[in-house]
């Protein structure tokens, strides 16, 4: 029996009361969100060698924007190379690379409005830098020095945030940003100045989508509702757990229809496909004032973080093959070269310039002292300072007065801070 005939017979028996679900006499289970029982397709614009596939629509971006997108993509692995080595030398406590996910980050960043509210996970540095966060800002934040624009040394490296760039502070616990983003989207909807103009955007990995917070955020944003754009970076691994062990269903995209959410799966290594998908998703999100889900299929080429050795749970050859066969930067470069928008000479000049800029920013940040000790108590809470903060400041002042100048471990550590703790020692006198 044809699918159309089956639907026709179902409608002959009417619907359940207060429902659009047609009644059927046929006992039939289903296990797919597609009518033919196949997996959800993946949207793509460029093939593996940078050529538009038949039937694909190129985004309406000019040479200047395309070149800027490419330059931002190239910048990320140059930053990663340096910072990973710096961490291995003991100069940095922690770092997370972006290898292999450059197209997902930059393609989505370029498609968003600069004043859309972004809540990241911990691999969205490219999104923030697209918005104007500088190399100096990034380096100072990672080193937690006296020029750290994010938290003045209170946060771990890679936990960025910038009010000026509408990028909410990253937190370590997994998936907490997802329901928060639904709340941010609801706040935007309640603001007459931003309703119908902006949305909240939340990034997370497929591993974070296994947390209850994912479902809470999706339920909130789809039913309240709120203009919240959910971007799942499905890079194949939740630290050491492969995607095949994280879910049995058809990825993260299959969950969207269960919440009545517009959903698309996109090739996350195709920057133009990501750009098109996010741009359209953002329009749907704002026009309808409710959630939209985008699943970007990519591959985490690097280790999860500097605390991880991914070759303990996946073959090295698998990683090398993906770097060679499905490289998002190489794919976009071939596209640009085919249009006459890029050349080998420009490539060499760009990489030399970026390496110099990254190294210069690193040297400036490394040379700066840590913030004054008293700053650890500032801006911890909004509003009136609680008694607990005052008590802790006073206790540290007493301890510094007693041990700061006589106990070598403290004396050495204090020299790393601007003012060497003198402002707190004087407070205790």
TrEMBL record:
It catalyses: N(6)-[(R)-lipoyl]-L-lysyl-[protein] + 3-methyl-2-oxobutanoate + H(+) = N(6)-[(R)-S(8)-2-methylpropanoyldihydrolipoyl]-L-lysyl-[protein] + CO2. Residues 1-23 are annotated as: Disordered. Residues 72-373 form the Dehydrogenase E1 component domain. It holds the Pfam family E1_dh. Transmembrane segments: none annotated. It is an enzyme of class 1 (oxidoreductase). One of its GO terms (molecular function) is branched-chain 2-oxo acid dehydrogenase activity. Keywords: Oxidoreductase, Thiamine pyrophosphate. The keyword Nucleotidyltransferase does not apply. The keyword Zinc does not apply. Its cofactor is thiamine diphosphate. Signal peptide: none annotated. Its EC number is 1.2.4.4. GO terms for biological process: branched-chain amino acid catabolic process. Belongs to the BCKDHA family. The branched-chain alpha-keto dehydrogenase complex catalyzes the overall conversion of alpha-keto acids to acyl-CoA and CO(2). It contains multiple copies of three enzymatic components: branched-chain alpha-keto acid decarboxylase (E1), lipoamide acyltransferase (E2) and lipoamide dehydrogenase (E3). This is 2-oxoisovalerate dehydrogenase subunit alpha. It comes from Laetiporus sulphureus 93-53.
